[in-house]
Sequence to fold (346 residues):
Amino acid sequence: MKVLVLGATGYIGSRLVPHLLERGHHVVAASSSVPDPDRFGWDERVRAIRCDVTDDEAVAEAVRDVDAVVYLVHSLDRSDFGDRDRLAAEVVAAAVGASDVRRLVYLSGLVPDVPESELSAHIASRLEVERILLGSGADAVALRAGVVVGAGSTSFEIIRQIATLFPVQPVPLWMRSSVQPVAVSDVLRAMDDALAEDGPLGAVDVGGPDVVSYPELMRACSRAVGLTRLRVPAPVAPMGLVGLGAALATTAPFHTVTALIESLRHDMVCRPDASWEPDGGGPLLGLEQALDLASTEAYAGPEGALPSDPAWTRGNVLLDLAPLPASTRAAARLALHRVLAVLPGG
Fold:
């Protein structure tokens, strides 16, 4: 098939493009600025284009003569992400509806089993985009995933940084909800099934075999890199204050952190009657195995780090070689990141 990947330079997109090539698909890789194939290791089989998903003409041109569209666009690094994501989804849905696109795949987020009025702004936006795209007129599927485990994954990197920074870590009582992480390689497998002509339709939940609480996930993250951390309950921990603290304690974009923290108060697990099961069979990667792969520097699979991953997810070569305690190294890396951020061009 000829597949247009919108948001190809993001975390999932950077893994999906070579994955699709390996399966014989023709790939058009699109992002808000023209992707640099050399940065991502793409060869001449990839057609790299610029496509502003809020531009009607640009999107109409991009979807012309393609069989399927994979929509990976999210704007969490902006304070107005909800408005922009709604507009982008409306533009893409209209263009797909007026084209010959047969399949539309959207990577959405797991939706907690609570009244919609209680959803975080982040999840509410994902659900709104999902509904818009599912109404495009094409055979559409929304793959709902929670924490995607892999080096460079935004949600995973934020949790990993928080889990490894301080030797003693207060954990709000409202963060004891459950989460069902999924390895990025299994997300790619779900994409394969979703792109098939006889693939699933509607909203499908994608999760790994393990359901854990957020403190257990943090413990697993620190254990994967050989660190012991003490976590103590924090009975009084306003969500806004926790979001601000997490944003200051990680190198991730501020608005991204605060938006994701707001989603931690609800269980993020798959619906038993609407969960993805691989068409080709085979087990899903367990949490510990996925964490081991994500923590292995030399690993070249999907869970491993790529040179194209955002700078904030990567370590510093000099600091990584310095004979410092893990917490000191992490604090120094954070301080360096803050200094570079305020310098011209930072």
Remarks:
- The longest helix spans residues 81-97.
- The longest strand covers residues 103-109.
- The chain has a mean pLDDT of 89.
